[in-house]
Amino acid sequence: MASFDVIILGGGPAGYICAIRSAQLGLGTAVVEQEKLGGVCVNIGCIPTKALLHSAYIASLLKESKEFGVEASGVKTDYGVAMKRSRRVSDQNSKGVEFLMKKHKITVLKGTGVVQPGRKVKVGSEVYEAKQAVVLATGSRVKGIPQIGLEINKTTVISSDEALLLERVPDSLAIIGAGAVGMEFADIFQAFGVKVTLIEALPRILPIEDAESSDTLTKSYKKRGIDVIAGATVTKATVGKDKVTLDVAAGSDKKQVTAAAVLMAAGRAVNTENIGLKECGIQLTDRGFIKVDKNLQTTTPGYYAIGDVAGPPMLAHKGFREGSVVAEIIAGQKPHPIKYDNVPSVTYCHPEVASIGLTEDQCKEQKLDYVAGKFPFSANGRARGTGETEGFVKILRDKKYGEILGAHIVGAHASEMIHELAVARENEYTVEEIDLAIHAHPTMSEAIGEAALDSLGRVLHI
Amino acid sequence: MATKVHMEALSPTMEEGRLVKWTKHEGDAIKSGDTLAEVETDKAVMELVARADGQLLKVMVPEGTTVPVGNIVAWIGKPGEKVDGDGAAAPVPKSAPAPEQRARSAVRSAPASAPQPTPIAPADATRVKASPLAKRIAKDAGVDLKLVHGSGPGGRVIKRDVEQAPTAAVATTAPAVQRPAYGAQRTPYEDVPLTQIRKTIAKRLAASIGPIPHFFLTTEVDMERGAEAREALNKQLGEEGGKISFNDIIIKAVALALVQHRACNAWFQEDHIRYWNEVHIGMAVAIEDGLITPVIRNADMKSLREIAAESRELAGRARNRRLKPEEYTGATFSVSNLGMFDIDQFTAVINPPEAGIVAIGSIVAKPVAEGDRVVVRRRLRLTMSCDHRVIDGATGAVFLKTLKQMLENPLAMLL
Questions:
Q1: CA distance A346 to A353
Q2: A437 touching B, CB under 8 A?
Q3: pLDDT score, position B63
Q4: Which of A26, A401, A403 sits opposite B103 (nearest CB)?
Q5: Are A3-141+269-340 and A146-266 the same fold in CATH?
Q6: Hey, are the CB atoms on A336 and B115 less than 8 Å from each other?
Q7: Which residue has the higher pLDDT, B209 or A460?
Q8: CB contact under 8 A, A403 and B158
Q9: A146-266: CATH, from 3.20.20.150, 3.30.230.80, 3.50.50.60, 2.60.120.1440
């Protein structure tokens, strides 16, 4: 029986980083993957959507280009071309992961892994032994809502998996769920000329973000012609051959939405079935995730879980860190514990939304004594120059010590700017250190320094 | 792989330690946190604690040996595990080997039970690594960051560490008593930059005598009423209460006088003077081979009975060399008493960065003039040594006058 020090189930972000870090630490490592390396993120998630969002951005830009002195006539969009480009980008990334596996002499076992007691993993007819640990990184998948008749049928009721492979866009699209996935697809399809209706069950779109971020995006989307319906539930769905009719109830307000297709973007299901968990005594939480301790070890010693299966937030960068930390624990190191309250959250719609830490509502709920400092991009020179004045930076400062309780950015490049605040929070810098760091002028990032100053009552440019 | 046990820096200034006694022996089962040995540092006998679980595999250093900080003194590991026998000879660099190398050299032990940051010995006590947020919270809460164990990268003190700091690290352990005089401020001290004239005084006087330009003020105190008060108090306390000594009364009086004269309750800090809002009295105690000054913290807010109990207890442990570093550092002013050796009067040397010390002679009955009569009174000579960079002649004199008045009229201490 072939053996390794560590066997990892799943070659997505959590799994492949765990493999690389394990190999760096001198452990003999194998990764089991049934599809392409890189997982959902690289193949049908983070990466291809970023390619499509850029296509959408270019389309929107050209619509306004006349104002900038550049006239583009006869602009046509072709989703099929954009889709093919996004596939090339994904393939490049997947090949990149393959290369990284080779570089670190990590064995990639093709097939579906099933764990067995005694730290064994069955792949096809072969059984492999893990001398030190088995790591579960099996990830998650899209899910429909069969209870109301919205089972994914891949034609009229689709998920992001299908949306990413469409040759042509539908005339109209209803998107159920306005979290990151729903928001990004609404942005993409609207730019490609689709009549988009965005439906969210919770009272506002981007429900986990700060209420001001949600408001800004609601206004922006409505201005662009996206129909945003929040606080609304789909009570019934009638799925036809080439159209779907949804009965939508928002309080006492009832209406019907008809679209050529429905995109399901309301949550994901974790892949915990048929991988031998029960046989190994590995328990799940009430919400269906694999139960782990603070070392990410499951209820069975020698078996760890990382990434989406180990619990929320279901984000690639959370999985990256868990993969790295678990490898270090297995190698006998004592890595610093993961700060789950300092994981940035980013939605790459236009304008982008990025945040870290608490929202203002959470500060209120926790009865924290805070001051909100805010700076709008409409007062930022760089943003005016590029015509990207939508949005703001908001910093929630603890009144007594200046701790950065939370930070929220809506605007172009918010995804790139949030890390200044991630570093600050990780190192426990206060708003005063943010201000002391000199920000180059003119940059969008100046708004971060200004928001910090605003929280101290000394904003300069408004 | 077996874990090395290093001689740790158990006090901020410790460079080497004498291994007094092994409390665990080869073959003993060890749990992280167990005391392995008693180590004599430059100031006290302290405990060397295990940082790993397992068995004490090998003791590298016999009792009585003096070992530089950082050297290997023992190995902890799994029973039967081999250890590197040469470890004792060569001094080991303070930093651990790179994690990567450690892992590659075949770490095949069971996964760690808890990801705890490696304990870092406070190598350099003058610079504390702490996050800006931790510094702010510590300053506000009066927590001494030097006494806080940092759990961040490289032993950096972070918010959580300050919030969880044991009360030992909190300088303001005082009860919620309304402080007299300048005690209204909540900060433990105030830093005042040196003025040009102060700088010149500092420079010229330091050039004149040694690094600390001392000057001395002597006064004679009538202790009749002080002695009566002491007798009455001790009668009141009876047998079980523990006796109050003259020294305790003097410590209390010094502390209260300092509250009124903050100018003498200060540290000279090269480019500024730190005026303390708290009063921590260092009490010189002679020990077998030297001298140590345990500190009675917030002495101005403690009752005579508390001071008596605390000074007795601290002096006892000082003589047995059992004081922790935080118990003999941080005084804002000191007293030294040689009265029990029948010394009438002497000058004490200032314990920097403090700016003053009061030397206490013996209480002697002697004839003094009272009006135009000669009477016999119990008298005490006090000599204050002042750091002229901080305290000027008149400043010291008014402080001493207040001290004299308090001792001559002990009831004033109740005000």
A1: 6
A2: no
A3: 85
A4: A26
A5: yes
A6: yes
A7: A460
A8: no
A9: 3.50.50.60
Under a CB-based contact definition with an 8 Å cutoff, are residues A377 and A392 in contact?
A: yes
pLDDT at B177: 38
The tokens describing B71, both together, are: 């050297």
Are A258 and A195 contacting, i.e. CB atoms less than 8 angstroms apart? no
Question: In 3D, which of A232, A148, A163, A167 has the Cα closest to residue A197?
Answer: A232
Classify B132-169 by CATH class: few secondary structures
pLDDT of residue B358: 96
Q: Nearest by CB to A26, which of B104, B134, B153?
A: B104
Residues of A in contact with B104 (CB under 8 A): 25-26
* ipTM score for this prediction: 0.73
pTM score > 0.95 for this model? no
Average pLDDT over residues B382-395: 92
Look at A332 and B109 and tell me if their CB atoms are within 8 Å. yes
**Which residues of A are annotated as catalytic?**
441
Q: Which of B189, B211, B214, B183 is nearest to B357 (CA)?
A: B214
Decide if A147 touches B, using CB distance below 8 A: no
In the three-class reduction of DSSP (H, G, I as helix; E, B as strand; rest coil), residue A1 is classed as coil
**How high is the pLDDT of residue B186?**
54
B100 and A329 within 8 Å at the Cβ level: the answer is no
Half-sphere exposure for B103 (CA within 13 Å, toward CB): 23
Inter-chain CB proximity B132 and A430 less than 8 Å: yes
Angstrom distance (rounded) from CA B57 to CA B81: 8
| Residue B61 burial (C-beta neighbours within 10 Å; 0-12, 13-18, 19+) | buried
Asked if B107's CB is within 8 angstroms of A132's CB, the reply is no
Q: In this predicted structure, what is the pLDDT of residue B124? A: 41
* Partners of residue A262 on adjacent β-strands: A157, A174
Neighbour-count burial of B210, counting CB atoms closer than 10 A to its CB (0-12 exposed, 13-18 middle, 19+ buried): exposed
CA distance B56 to chain A (A): 20
Residue A453: per-residue pLDDT: 97
Residue type for B170, please?
Answer: V
Burial of B398 (C-beta count, 10 Å sphere; 0-12/13-18/19+): middle
pLDDT < 70: residue spans in chain A: none
Residue B114 has pLDDT above 50, yes or no: no
- How many of the other CB atoms lie within 10 Å of CB of A10? 32
Per the CATH hierarchy, to which homologous superfamily does domain A3-141+269-340 belong?
Answer: FAD/NAD(P)-binding domain (3.50.50.60)
Average pLDDT, chain A: 96
Give residue ranges of B with CB < 8 Å to any A CB. 99-100, 102-104, 106-109, 111-118, 131-134, 136-137, 140, 152-153, 158-159
Q: Does A132 touch chain B (CB under 8 A)?
A: yes
Decide if pLDDT at B103 tops 70: no
Band of pLDDT at residue B204, cut at 50, 70 and 90:
low
A133 touches chain B (CB under 8 A): yes
